[in-house]
Structure formats: C-alpha cells, structure tokens
Amino acid sequence: xxxxxxxxxxxxxxxxxxxxxxxxxxxxxxxxxxxxxxxxxxxxxxxxxxxxxxxxxxxxxxxxxxxxxxxxxxxxxxxxxxxxxxxxxxxxxxxxxxxxxxxxxxxxxxxxxxxxxxxxxxxxxxxxxxxxxxxxxxxxxxxxxxxxxxxxxxxxxxxxxxxxxxxxxxxxxxxxxxxxxxxxxxxxxxxxxxxxxxxxxxxxxxxxxxxxxxxxxxxxxxxxxxxxxxxxxxxxxxxxxxxxxxxxxxxxxxxxxxxxxxxxxxxxxxxxxxxxxxxxxxxxxxxxxxxxxxxxxxxxxxxxxxxxxxxxxxxxxxxxxxxxxxxxxxxxxxxxxxxxxxxxxxxxxxxxxxxxxxxxxxxxxxxxxxxxxxxxxxxxxxxxxxxxx
Length: 389
Hints:
- This protein is α/β, with parallel strands linked by helices.
- The chain has three domains: 23-232, Rossmann fold (3-Layer(aba) Sandwich), CATH 3.40.50; 237-328, Immunoglobulin-like (Sandwich), CATH 2.60.40; 332-389, Type 1 dockerin domain, CATH 1.10.1330.
- It is built from six helices and 20 strands.
- A nine-stranded mixed β-sheet has the order 2-1-3-4-11-10-9-6-7. A four-stranded antiparallel β-sheet has the order 14-13-16-18, with no helix packed on it.
- The longest helix is centred in the middle third of the chain and has 14 residues, at 219-232.
- It is elongated, with a radius of gyration of 23 Å.
- 43% of the residues are buried.
C-alpha cells in the first residue's frame, strides 16, 4: 500500500573498443542487505562501486564528478525529500556528462506530487503516473537493438520480483525522445519497463520496478542492470567533432589502428564524450563530438600508447576543427595508461614470439615489426614510470 502524504525534510576505465567498465556511486537505499547485493552484482560485471550516502543527506558540495554514473534507488527511504540545492547539483552532474540510473520509487514519486523531485523530474525519461501493481513475476521483452543494452541478453526473459509496498509502475509511455529498451505486458497492454535518454551531455535510465534482492538473483536481470550503467556511462558522441593526426611513436607497423577519442570538461577533465575511430596510414582521423557543441579538451588513447590530452578546442556545427598532430608515448602493454613493471611482465611473456606463434602478444610488439624483441624492451624502458594524461 502507498500513501500520498508528503514528508518534508532535509572515474578512468580506458578501453579501445569493447565494453566500458564504469565507476559507480550507489546511493544508500535504506536497506543494508540490498546495498550489499547491488554492489556485488555490479562488481561481478566489472564495474567499480563506491557506496554513497542516503540521497536526501547529500550536500551540494558532493563530488559527483569522480564517478561515471550514480544509482539512485529511494526504495526504503523515499519519504524524505532531497533539498533543492543538492537536487540541482545532481541534475547539473547529468547535464554536464554524468550518468544516472534510478529505480521505480522515483517514478511513482514524480507521478504522485509536484513536490517530489521538482528539479530532477525534468531529466526523468518516463511519462509520470501513480498507477502501479504487484506482479510476483514479470517477463521483459527487448524493444530495442541498442548494442550496449542488449549485450549478452536474450530477447525475452522472466524473473521473480520484490515487493516494497508495490512492485512495478505502469508507465503509459516513455517521454518524447526517450527509448523503451525493454517492455512488459499485462493482458493486452504493453508498458515500458526500462527507459532511457540523453539529457544534456549525460544519460538517464529509469527502471519500472524496485530492483530489489529477488530480481538480483536472476542472471539475465543482473546483466541488464549492469548494462544500464554501461549505457549511461557511454558518453554520447553524435555532435560536430574534430579532425587531426596521431603520431604513434616508435611504431613501424603499416596497418590502421583504432584510437579512443575522449572529450573532457576544461575545468576538471571529466569525460563528457567518448568514441572510437580508425586512423589512416598517415595518422589522420576524424571523430564525432559531444551531442552539444562546446569547448572541450580532447584525449587521444591508442592501444599500448599513453593517453595525451590536448586543447581546448571548440566544436562547431558544420565545421571540423583541426587539433593538429598529437604525439603519443609507446610502451603501455596492458593499456592502463601508465608504464610499469606489469608491462615488462607482459612483454617478457611474449619475448621472442612472432605473429602466428603461441604466446605472441601484439600489445607487447611495441614497434609493430611482427616479433617481440630487444627493441621492444628498449621502447618500454625509455617510457618506464611515465603516466598518460
């Protein structure tokens, strides 16, 4: 049963291609066991998790920009409101490139009264309603081919649910511009189950259920839950971008290479856009930019080279500014943006191996000549103990 009475009160995972691991702040749900379960699920999927305070206790000085995404789940502690300054601070984080994932109670609260979430409701991707029900199990059906949200997922799966004074909100639709990634059906009516959209430079995903401990026991739901954070941390790059050249130092291979291009806020280097592009044989490349044109720093990261951040550069519609030639340091065999003893270990394991040999590692073949030799050791030694930007 739900009542309408109002209570008033007071991260770098560098990859070039592949899934993006995220640094996630999980706000306290009001239930210690659920907090621990959520943390374990996300960590089992490769994310780094930091437990945060209860949402209504967050101050406007809280540093959201150390995280890729925030999980807000007011399940057991929903009756206290976040103060306006703190709520605005969280919305600013999303607008400036952060990710936000929320559970069902937030949606019901928005539908219940304009006094709930008066600032964050603008970023909520579902159409507000107070209609909810208590299904003991649900079947989710894929409604989108988004490669991140559907990664590792079946087209349909069924799971048991948790009842926390209700189970699922019957949203009539997602809002204009949002996507219903998964749906569920009751009788002849289909409802959005998981909806998301781009909001400012960031992304928001809303689940239509409480995301309780029972759901977290289902392997498919756990994967979907983790995918939501990959998606919100994906950093949209659909806007006007840049061009330039990359100098892959100490490299003599002739094949094309992919590079990770990141766009950063100029004040704190927070990533607001991320895309992978292919550089041509002469090192030239083009890359799309954040969906909102603006002034950003630009990071260039290729496999086994350290990241270099340049700029600032201003992206402009119908214009492709040239950032010039970016020279990157070779030697990062394990792609963690610093050259350490662990890179030596990888190189040593592949030493004297050539393309086609068991144990050959292309990321240890630093000069790209097809064989891991003493020359690769020299490249690594010259870069030892250096950090990327």
